[in-house]
Design a protein that fits this description.
The protein is about 75% helix and about 0% strand. The protein contains 10 helices and no strands.
Length: about 210
């Protein structure tokens, strides 16, 4: 499994876990208040999502300082672009897209400057020999998280493993996954996200 693909799976698992329709409805109300000039509504959104956005940034960058910077920048950019968000209930996805773009830009800029952000294979073999300093604690933390996710994947049923492999690691669309498995596209989508939630529950019990 390529490290980038594997690490993005970790971000997906932690990105789908604990929110419900009530959360999206609350976001819609908060965004409307924010558009009406109530800045405290934005503080509520930050408080609600800051830990999860930081985690998602960390799973892409594997450096605490960079993850904190990326999370803060994502919130700032989301506020600046809030007028373009038509449905407030989609704020979390909007925020994640901004974060993802910022993290990708940061990785490209770091590589261009000769300071690539750490990759999993590098940390596994040479934990301290990377262009961008990574503490032994961070290297160990990264390896432990990836090992936990690999063990969680081993606990999936064969059908669940197959849909994760097809959708995430082979990059098929839900329509293509449905054709491959002989199921409707919407069913493929439901099974995929249900499997991510199952992985999340396994990891929560393992922690």
């Amino acid at each position: 499994m390529a490290s980038e693909t594997f690490l993005s799976l970790i971000g997906l698992i932690f990105g789908v876990l604990k929110y419900s329709n009530q959360d999206w409805e609350e976001d819609d109300r908060l965004i409307q208040r924010l558009k009406n000039g109530e800045r405290e509504a934005f503080a509520r959104l930050v408080a609600k999502y800051q830990q999860d956005i930081y985690k998602l940034a960390y799973f892409k960058l594997w450096n605490r300082a960079d993850a904190e910077e990326a999370a803060q920048e994502a919130f700032v950019r989301s506020l600046a672009a809030i007028g373009s968000l038509r449905e407030g209930k989609k704020y979390f996805g909007f925020l994640k897209a901004i974060l993802n773009n910022y993290c990708n830009d940061l990785r490209i800029r770091s590589k261009r400057e000769g300071n690539p952000l750490p990759e999993y294979e590098v940390l596994e073999t040479e934990p301290l020999n990377v262009s961008k300093p990574v503490s032994p604690e961070e290297a160990l933390e990264k390896k432990q998280i990836i090992d936990q996710v690999r063990k969680a994947l081993d606990r999936l049923d064969q059908d669940e493993k197959e849909i994760i492999t097809l959708k995430h690691f082979q990059g098929l669309t839900f329509q293509e996954v449905g054709v491959r498995l002989g199921i409707p596209e919407n069913t493929a989508k439901t099974v995929f996200y249900r499997t991510l939630e199952k992985l999340g529950r396994i990891l929560q019990h393992a922690s």
